[in-house]
Amino acid sequence: MRTLVWFRGKDLRVADHAPLADAAAAGETIPLFVLDPYFFAPERAREIPHRMQYLVESLAELARSIEKLGSRLVVVGGKSTEVVPALARELGVDRVVGYRWTEPVGKERDRRVTKALAEIPFDLYDGETLATPGKLLTGSGTPFAVFTPFANAFAKDVVVGAPRRAPRSLPPVPKLPRSVVAREVAVPVPEDLGITPNPRIVRGGEAAARARLRAFLRGPGARYDVGRDLMGEAGTSRVSQDLKFGTISARAVFGHAKEALAEHPKARRAYLNELVWREFAYDVLEHRPDVLSEPFRPAWQGFPWREDEAGWRAWVSGTTGYPVVDASARQLLTEGFVHNRARMITASFLAKHLLVDFRRGEEHFMRFLTDGDWAANDLGWQWSTGCGVDAQPWFRVFNPVLQGAKFDARGAYVRRWLPELANLGDRWIHQPWEAPAAELARAGIVLGETYPRPIVDHAFARQRFLATAKGHLG
DNA sequence: TGAAATGTTGGGGCG
DNA sequence: ACGCCCCAACATTTC
Fold first, then answer.
1. Distance A214 CA to B2 C1' (A)
2. With a 7 Å cutoff on the CB, does A473 touch strand C?
3. What confidence score (pLDDT) does residue A392 get?
4. Does residue A463 approach strand C to less than 7 Å at its CB?
5. A 394-413: CB within 7 Å of strand C
């Protein structure tokens, strides 16, 4: 049995990689990665610099790991829909295996590959998520549209298997035909893709992912139920990009958390729940692939979003005058990550305060988030906007000042990303425009010069949104 | 995984 | 001492 194991960027690991382990157990195994210009053409790669940096770093480590196990990762360039079938023939493999991508773009690719492979079996494993998207249904056979019932069904019906260990060794790659060798290329470094490496992006690769999870479970995980919301603290696991790229498997995260947090039931429930939210996002996308371009709730179609270029530029650049919103904008551009609480606040601000189409913000996040995941990002944006599945009601408008006071009471988060406000006292850190002149002077702040005044008044923006939404939604 | 407006209550100041 | 009013503090309703 000769198997081509196609790694596809959401499974960049050797531990708990069922297709790889099964192939190795069955005979000759050829690990493959394809640098598809759809992602790797420099003009495309430069659009998503943070994810690309993480990806190539993870890919390099994967190649090293596979080499240590006695095999070799074969890396080729070209469109995967053409290259994979061609390689499969040139290599004379009996089958091609990999993990299933359930996102629309992956489904379409795999449909074409299956067709082009023709008589060569293409076996796709479930495992991107804990539950197979689309499988869980309500009692009446319809897709879940509310999280809690989905989570209940998940708890009742989904058996999360134990993660498998990495193979102890892999069979060596057989001698490759000349035609295949000619296609081989090296794993790119960021510079090859026109990307300047950014030291603030989290380290890619399987080892770093495991280390992050372990550090979390040994430390802040115990009080995750409260710590996860505190924007200034490192209270979260920070493995979102690792789940996205599969440098750690979802069931490894689930299993380790379940075990390690056993003595902290509230924290454990909260953390596992977040993993189930990810499941829910994939499930929704499976049933409703149109959510990537349209609101989940039909009533929101044609919502009268505003064209507000000045507002948009302020939101993107972190100059809205609302410290939490501005801090999150700068965190995104600087380190490719935003604290979840800050994501909710800033998404709400763009859609509700500025009345800018949430899809524009969603796209911006997808560009710069290292963990940018179609399903999870879309669910988050639609939830915050109020047009999504189990979304918060449209009339709930976050007040960025109150949210800041509640979840960043000492202003640690804001000060980290807005050094120009560093010396402002806690009392005013989330509303510098209200600070007395003497306090501003003491802190070296000149409103409108060193830090902007709010681009829009909160009370006004809130009323404007409520009136607009009421008018459209009835 | 809200916030603001409105309603209610009860203690204390004050004539 | 009594009644009236004010207004926190808390509860409920509305968006």
1. 34
2. no
3. 81
4. no
5. 395-396
pLDDT at A273: 97
Average pLDDT in chain A:
97
Query: What was the pLDDT predicted at A393?
Result: 87
For the sheet with A95-99, list strands across it: A74-77, A28-35, A2-7, A95-99, A122-125
d(CA A78, CA A67): 23
**Which nucleotide is the nearest neighbour of A467, by CA and C1'?**
C15
The residues, ordered by sequence, that sit 6+ positions from A330 with a Cβ below 8 Å of its Cβ are A318, A417, A418
pLDDT number for residue A391? 84
When the candidates are 1.25.40.80, 1.20.1540.10, 1.10.10.60, 3.40.50.300, the CATH number that belongs to A129-161+207-287 is 1.25.40.80
Q: In strand C, which positions have an atom below 7 A from any protein CB?
A: 15
- Report the SS3 class of residue A6: strand
Task: Return residue ranges of chain A for CATH 1.25.40.80.
Answer: 129-161+207-287
Q: Are A321 and A453 in contact (CB under 8 A)?
A: yes
Verify if strand C has an atom below 7 Å from the CB of A470: yes
Low-confidence ranges of chain A (pLDDT < 70): none
Measured distance CA(A419)–CA(A318) in Å, rounded: 12
Q: What is the DSSP letter of A238?
A: -
Cα(A294)–Cα(A382) distance, integer angstroms: 10
The ranges of chain A annotated as CATH 1.10.579.10 are: 298-473
pLDDT, position A474: 79
Give every CB contact of residue A318 below 8 A, 6+ residues apart in sequence: A325, A326, A327, A328, A329, A330, A333, A417, A418
Where along chain A do the CATH 3.40.50.620 domains lie? 2-127
The Å distance, CA of A403 to C1' of C7, is 27
Span CA (A406) to C1' (C9), Å: 20
The three-state secondary structure class of A447 is strand
Q: Report the nucleotide nearest the CA of residue A404, measured to C1'.
A: B2
What's A298-473's CATH class? mainly alpha
Please give the Cα distance from A469 to A335 (Å, whole number).
Answer: 34
pLDDT tens-place string over residues A91-129:
999 999 999 999 999 999 999 999 999 999 999 999 999
DSSP letter for A190, please: G
Using a 7 Å cut-off to protein CB atoms, list the covered nucleotides of chain B: 1-5
CATH superfamily of A2-127: HUPs (3.40.50.620)
A430 CB-to-strand B distance under 7 Å: no
- Return the closest nucleotide (C1') to the Cα of A396: B2
In the structure, how far is the CA atom of residue A458 from the C1' atom of nucleotide B5, in angstroms? 16
